[in-house]
Amino acid sequence: MIVEFSVFDTDLYSVEHIDESFENPQLIEQFETNENSRGLECYLKNVALYDEEHSLSRTYLVKDKTTRELAGYFSLRTGLITRQIKDDKFDSIPAIELANFAVNSNYKKNHPDIKLLGFYIFSKFIIPLAKCFEKYVGIRALYIYALPNERLIDHYNKMGFVRLPPEQEQFVQFHVKPKYDEGCIFMYQIL
After folding, report:
1. CB-CB contact of 74 with 100 (8 Å)
2. Is the separation of the CB atoms in 3 and 136 below 8 Å?
3. Which of 44, 97, 131, 152 is the most exposed, having the fewest neighbouring CB atoms within 10 Å of its CB?
4. Average pLDDT for runs of 10 along the chain of length 191
5. 3-state secondary structure at position 155
6. How far apart are CA 185 and CA 191, in angstroms?
7. Quick one: 160 exposed, middle or buried, by C-beta within 10 A (0-12, 13-18, 19+)?
8. 71, 20 in Cβ contact below 8 A?
9. What is the value of pTM for the model shown?
10. How are beta strands 89-103 and 141-146 bridged, if at all?
């Protein structure tokens, strides 16, 4: 399957793979997140290319079409949601993990008039890309391990993500969540 990423471009922004352009290493070096999200900045700068080369995830850069500044990025990979339905019975739903998602603090400083950038990236790039993949691969949901920040959790709720009931969330915390997402909150939405 070849996905032409220019079909996802908007009037304001374009999206491309992390390794698609010679200018990307410099743009990535200038990328900054807020203080509470430094792990997302570290991932982009130190791990994303490795994951891309080894097919562990795909990282997409969202660039301002006019200034060519890096506005944000996200990483996707396949996965599944495992649910406990009875004491010894489990069910799984094929899904895509939104493994990393951040906006560039420097870009926001340079463009204070731009509001709801994260929601824009989510609705114009992440959801359409997930729905495109859904045509070729069995996918029913999109999920994320959100940082345990009530404001962020509320933000993801507004984007359509929900939490599991407490007992199922505890199951995911104990059995399914990757080590690097320890302390994060599992949230999902059906596509």
Report:
1. yes
2. no
3. 131
4. 67 92 93 88 95 95 96 94 74 91 96 95 94 90 89 93 82 63 82 91
5. helix
6. 19
7. middle
8. no
9. 0.89
10. parallel
